[in-house]
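User: Teach me something about this protein's shape.
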Amino acid sequence: MKQAVVIINPYSGKRKAKETINESSSRCLSLFKRHGYEVTFHKTTYPGHATDIVKNLSDTVDLVISVGGDGTLNEAMVGNFARKKRLVLAHLPYGTTNDIGAMFGFGKHPYKNLQLILSGIVKGIDICTINGHPFVYSAGFGKFMNVPYETGRNLKKYLGKSAYIIAGLRDFFQKKTPLYELTYEVDGEKYHGLYSFALISNANRIAGMPHFYRNVKLNDNAFEVAFCNLRTKRDIVRSLIYLRLNDITKVPGFYFHKTDHIRIKFHSKLKKPWCLDGELYRSEDDVYDIKIERNVPMIVAEHVIDKMFLSED
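Assistant: First, the predicted structure itself:
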């Protein structure tokens, strides 16, 4: 039989993942068996545990499923990048916003998502790296980018997405918006300026907002970059309203690029670390290279392939 490994973050989302997908569920085990898999379960117990699990798995494993939030998949991807032979990953969303899960075609019901994964399609997707460290769908620094990793786990557990809104409002009203001096190079051009935040992503949904970017493809050898120089509360509020009605390329105060490589050099020190896939990314570097690693194998739901992938014909 084929071998599957399920890595569960039991603390993601409002409920614990172990309530639905676990080694004691005969329904879950029967589904794996029907698809020809023998399955092993692991529960994470510390930050970075999913990375360690994936990094040390046998090359004979046919499928690894992360169960949790976007950060859980990020950990699994980091572990996969540390291997000589990459494994096929899939993600069963069980977090607060579940941006990646929604992009890959999965909904809110864990068992139905598991069915979609086991009958899904393996696709080679573009994965971005920042100084060699992978992130699946987003990386950012500056204003608001600290909110995902600074919002308390218990608050997220009981309030869901509302926890991020509360934390974001607190950040908005209580703190000044610093501007960072930086130079960046993209597509042979060099830019210099002061920016309050930047977002690098390969996704159509970010922070729970669908259609953040339009017409995103996961295999087009490109990612989206947005720099923002807004600082006043009035301008930020106005731009957030625009963002609800348009994708980010139409919002005043943003500078947009679509590329496969960008190099960012900071001339002033960041007050808060970068955020990668909703998690804190510690780095003392002042220069960051963001590139693409192509054809990383992942399973996505069959019904989103035409929407999210360029034809391979």
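Now, about its shape. Residues 146 and 272 are 7 Å apart (CA to CA). DSSP finds ten helices and 16 strands in the chain. If you'd like, I can walk through any region in more detail.
User: That's plenty for now, thanks!
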